């Protein structure tokens, strides 16, 4: 063998040995890295959960909720209108003023109606004079008939004249009563007690009959007027409990279904329902409100609504199994309210995916990844957390 061939053979052998060494060293370096990552995950500290972070899937009376919205309105309200056409002389109240039933709010100009009253009174006096004359004539004619000086027909004529005069007197008196009432109607009085919601005219303006002057509302009784869809109104009943949420109020207001309109609204086909609110400070007519009406209830397996997560294709919950947060896909049913530990809470029915008693994490824990080690609170705290 020549020297050149020997050198080439040695070089090939060296390259083969180097490749073998490299091939062996690569997996040897990867295995320790993977083992190190697994050991690091296993040794990571567990997340300590608070009592309010956990709940149990449990059976409870689930009340199906009907969501409604609408405006608040006073049960008792009145729009004060002008009963005579006249100029506004005085109006002594403004928005926000409290008034009593029968209180004098202002006056309309009574000049024209007082002139009509005087004219009507003069007509009464004239009609009374005609009745007196006709009465005397009738009595005289009756005496003359008895003496045979006049015919019976003449007496009948005088009787008819007296009857006509008496009818004219009654009509004149009725006209005088109307004129007297018109004078009284120039006084603007409150028909109900409450607060002035609108002042619609100013002194000096001329107002027509039935022209709006002042609106008064009684905030002692407030109700929510809400439109109900046709498919929902079939399940709505008078007396059902409800909660009304109003912006600005820290807590919902208790309410109940007071009335349901028997007719649908033209065009929308919705039906108006009226929810009577419990007396509460801060309620005002016209405020927008949302309400939840508790419909029929039934026993169901439920979890808190905040425990259901929807950042994946299908809804799921994080269940605690073996000290780890495990994602469990669930099939959901109705939503509603449950009463646990003396408090109401929004909950959702679980049809598939969880067994009763499974510990789940509420949304208060935040965006926790599946597989995270978790540590449950003390047993007593965990029991309280099922509410």
UniProtKB/TrEMBL annotation:
* Span of the signal peptide: 1-19
Question: What NCBIfam families does the entry give?
Answer: RND_mfp
Write out the GO cellular component annotations: efflux pump complex
Q: What is this protein called?
A: Efflux RND transporter periplasmic adaptor subunit
Keywords from the UniProt entry: Coiled coil, Signal
Family note: Belongs to the membrane fusion protein (MFP) (TC 8.A.1) family.
GO MF terms here are:
efflux transmembrane transporter activity
Q: Which PANTHER family match?
A: HLYD FAMILY OF SECRETION PROTEINS (PTHR30469:SF15), MULTIDRUG RESISTANCE PROTEIN MDTA (PTHR30469)
- According to the UniProt entry, the coiled-coil residues are 110-137
SUPFAM superfamilies per the UniProt record, alphabetical: HlyD-like secretion proteins
Multidrug resistance protein MdtA-like barrel-sandwich hybrid domain: from which residue to which, for each copy? 78-207
What Pfam family does this protein match (any one)? Answer: BSH_RND
């Amino acid at each position: 063998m020549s020297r050149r061939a020997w050198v080439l053979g040695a070089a090939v052998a060296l390259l083969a040995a180097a490749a073998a060494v490299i091939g062996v060293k690569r997996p040897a370096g990867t295995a320790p890295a993977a083992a190190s990552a697994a050991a690091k995950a296993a040794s990571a500290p567990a997340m300590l959960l608070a009592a309010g972070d956990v709940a149990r899937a449990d059976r409870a009376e689930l009340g199906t909720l009907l969501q409604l919205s609408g405006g608040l309105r006073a049960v008792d309200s009145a729009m004060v209108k002008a009963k005579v056409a006249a100029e506004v002389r005085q109006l002594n109240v403004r928005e926000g003023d409290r008034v009593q039933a029968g209180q004098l709010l202002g006056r309309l100009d009574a000049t024209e109606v007082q002139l009509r009253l005087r004219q009507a009174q003069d007509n009464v006096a004239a009609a009374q004079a005609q009745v007196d004359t006709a009465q005397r004539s009738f009595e005289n004619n009756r005496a003359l008939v008895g003496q045979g000086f006049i015919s019976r027909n003449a007496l009948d004529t005088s009787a008819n004249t007296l009857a006509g005069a008496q009818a004219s007197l009654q009509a004149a008196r009725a006209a005088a009563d109307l004129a007297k009432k018109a004078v009284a109607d120039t006084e603007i009085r409150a028909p109900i007690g409450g607060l002035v919601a609108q002042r619609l005219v100013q002194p000096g303006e001329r107002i027509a009959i039935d022209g709006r002057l002042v609106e008064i509302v009684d905030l002692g009784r407030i109700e929510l007027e809400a439109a109900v869809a046709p498919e929902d109104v079939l399940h709505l009943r008078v007396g059902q409990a409800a909660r009304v949420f109003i912006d600005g109020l820290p807590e919902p207001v208790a309410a109940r279904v007071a009335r349901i309109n028997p007719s649908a609204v033209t065009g929308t086909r919705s039906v108006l329902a009226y929810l009577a609110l419990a007396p509460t400070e801060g309620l005002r007519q016209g405020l927008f409100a949302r309400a939840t009406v508790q419909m029929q209830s039934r026993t169901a397996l439920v979890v808190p609504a905040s425990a259901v997560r929807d950042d994946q294709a299908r809804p799921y919950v994080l269940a605690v199994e073996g000290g780890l947060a495990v994602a469990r896909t669930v099939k959901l049913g109705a939503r509603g309210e449950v009463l646990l530990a003396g408090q109401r809470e929004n909950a959702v029915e679980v049809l598939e995916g969880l067994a009763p008693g499974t510990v789940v994490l509420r949304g208060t824990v935040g965006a926790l990844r599946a597989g995270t080690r978790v540590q449950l609170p003390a047993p007593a705290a965990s029991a309280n957390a099922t509410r």
